[in-house]
């Protein structure tokens, strides 16, 4: 792998450990700086693999299930804080992605939404809020499609003047 092909904030896997972290740049010795669990690891290019954003969550979620990780450990790995609300504005959700293509941002927001819903169900939360913003309605529409896949939820888009959805699990 050529480190110059990586973007700041891109998700990468350290092959030797299976850890998925964030590319933070290259040090003076030519090693990649990878942030994982609030620590910086220095890794050679040969020990890295780019993890496409769409593929990160299903694969890592399956790994965590296989390894019998707790929901708190999953949250740490998946960068989700478990309160009853998720704000999908990219500036809050993943500031490092604010200059990405809109399609890539939307994919990221939808994956985070799916994980948030799944983990809220796993935690038996009775109620959650998903803040999607008002915008042009693209994200709102996609969230509605996602929510319809879960037979155990009811929802309304009346919160925050239509900029958020309330979900009852």
Explain what the structure shows:
With 169 residues, this protein is α+β, with helices and mostly antiparallel strands. The protein folds into 2 domains: 3-50, SH3 type barrels (Roll), CATH 2.30.30; 79-168, Ribosomal Protein S8, Chain: A, domain 1 (2-Layer Sandwich), CATH 3.30.1370.110. The chain is built from 5 helices and 9 strands. It has helices at residues 53-66, 71-78, 90-93, 102-122, 138-148; strands at 11-14, 19-26, 32-36, 39-43, 48-50, 85-87, 127-131, 154-159, 164-168. The protein has a 5-stranded antiparallel beta sheet with strand order 4-3-2-1-5, covered by helices on one side. It has a 4-stranded mixed beta sheet with strand order 6-7-9-8. The termini are far apart.
Q: Please estimate the helix content.
A: 25-40%
CATH top-level class of the largest domain: Alpha Beta
Q: Nearest-angstrom radius of gyration?
A: 17 Å
Number of strands: 9
What fraction of the residues are assigned to beta strands by DSSP?
Answer: 25-35%
Q: Would you give the CATH topology of the largest domain?
A: Ribosomal Protein S8, Chain: A, domain 1
- End-to-end C-alpha gap: 44 Å
For the record, the CATH architecture of the largest domain stands as 2-Layer Sandwich
């Amino acid at each position: 792998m050529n480190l110059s092909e990586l973007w700041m904030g891109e998700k990468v896997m350290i092959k030797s450990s299976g850890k998925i972290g964030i590319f933070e740049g290259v040090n003076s010795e030519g090693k990649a700086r990878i942030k994982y669990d609030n620590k910086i690891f220095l890794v050679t290019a040969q020990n890295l693999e780019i993890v496409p954003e769409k593929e990160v969550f299903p694969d890592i979620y399956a790994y965590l299930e296989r390894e019998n990780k707790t929901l708190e450990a999953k949250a740490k790995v998946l960068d989700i804080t478990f309160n009853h609300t998720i704000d999908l504005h990219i500036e809050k959700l993943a500031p490092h992605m604010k200059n990405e293509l809109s399609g890539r941002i939307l994919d990221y927001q939808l994956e985070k939404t799916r994980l948030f819903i799944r983990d809220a169900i796993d935690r038996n939360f009775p109620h959650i809020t998903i803040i999607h913003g008002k915008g042009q309605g693209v994200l709102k529409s996609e969230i509605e499609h996602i929510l319809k896949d879960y037979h155990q939820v009811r929802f309304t888009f009346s919160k925050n003047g239509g900029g958020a959805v309330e979900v009852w699990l």
